[in-house]
Structures are given as C-alpha cells and as structure tokens.
Amino acid sequence: MSVKWLENEFKEIQFFLYRARNRLFSQQDWVVLCKLLDGNEVRTAADCIDVKEVNESDLERVADALPDELAGRLTDERQLAMVRSRFKAGVPCVIAFNTKTSEILGGCWCRPLANEHALRSLIPNWSSVFEISTLFVTPEARGKRIGAVLINRACSLMKGKGVQGCVSLVWYTRSPSIKSHLKLGFRPVGEKVTASVIGFRKTWFRAQYRSKALPQYEGHTS
Which helix (H) or strand (E) element contains residue 149? Predict the structure, then answer.
C-alpha cells in the first residue's frame, strides 16, 4: 500500500464530503469582469519566466501544478482527466513556466463563450467572446505578477484567433486577482451567484455587483 494510493483515497473521501456538504447548503459569488481586446495585451514576465500555449506533452505537468484550492479535493486521476478533456475539446491553455527548471508556475484556459450563454446578457454585444477559466498561480510563485502576465497572454492569443472580447469570473474573496484584472483594463459588469439548498442548486447572473467588495488602487474607483 503506497503513500500515493493513500493520498488519492483521502482525496476521494474529501471530494465526497465536500460535494455532500455543498448539496446541503452553500453559496458562491463571483464578480464578472470583461474587456475589449485591443491588441495591446503584451506584458513581459519576470526573469527566467516565460509563457506559452500548452501542447499534449505538457498535460500531466499542468495537472500536477493545479493548486489545492482548485483541485485539492480531486484525485490525481480526476485532475489529469479534466486537463486532458479540455485539451481534447480544443480549449486553449496558457502556462507560465521557469525557463531554467521547466517548472509550471501558473496557467489558465481560454474557453469560447457561446452566444446563448447567460453571461452574454451582462457584456457588450461583441461578435465573439472567450472566458478566462481556472486561472491559477502556484503558491510559491505568487507575488510576481504572473497572473497578470497570463491574463495578457491569453488575451493576446485569442485576439490573434479573431476573438473580440474577454470575460472573467473571479471570487470576491480573491482581491489580488480582481485588482490585476482591473489594472489590465477589465471592468466589472455584474456577478454570478450559485446557491445550493438540500440538493437543489440554482445559478443566476445579475447586472449588479458589490462595488464595496472590490479592491481599490490609484487610478480606479468603484
């Protein structure tokens, strides 16, 4: 019986308990931010850090790099299956990595937004939109503006594919990520709320958002 097997079994139990608790009662809230892609989304990463679009050989390392708050309740197999399914579906993924060690420091997915998606009611009538999905920076790499670099590279990549706009959903509790988005030209346009009560789940979008919950910085006021 290996340590890895025990870790995966423990994660399976955590995942089961997490879903059971959330089905009884939970609420999650995101602020919805959007930006018109203007072609000026180039931002240089720090020394020894580069950014690229992933290929198939990167998938296992991407799955391993996902931080606990995003995938800690998933087994290694579930994490890899999620990453592979997105790649197989053609969803672009951008990663930041250490050029000396090849260690993955962060990443995000660029998910095309369907015209009939409920988010469309909150954003301008752009011809094509993509959503920044599962944006992450590994704990040891935080504080180096890697998130901002990833967002910009994702926008630049999708602009090159002819996409007109970008939308990103960020938990209100993630002030640093919200601040990065605002500094990069994103603006809040609404919020997403998901609530579960005794097994019944409902998600809704609305044009209002909690302006007082957004971080402030010089040059921006809510």
Answer: helix 146-160
Q: How far is CA 8 from the centre of its chain?
A: 24
Tens digit of pLDDT at every position of the chain (222 positions): 576 666 665 555 555 555 555 556 678 899 999 999 987 665 666 678 999 999 999 999 999 999 876 655 677 888 899 999 999 999 999 999 999 999 999 999 999 999 999 999 999 999 999 999 999 999 889 888 899 999 999 999 999 999 999 999 999 999 999 999 999 999 999 999 999 877 788 999 999 999 998 987 555 555
Q: What is the distance of C-alpha 21 from the center of its chain?
A: 23
Q: For the chain, which domains are there?
A: 3-17+24-213 (3.40.630.30)
The DSSP annotation for 91-123 comes to --EEEEEETTT--EEEEEEEEEPPTTSGGGGTS
Tokens of 178: 């919200």
Distant-in-sequence, close-in-space partners of 85: CB < 8 Å, separation ≥ 6: none
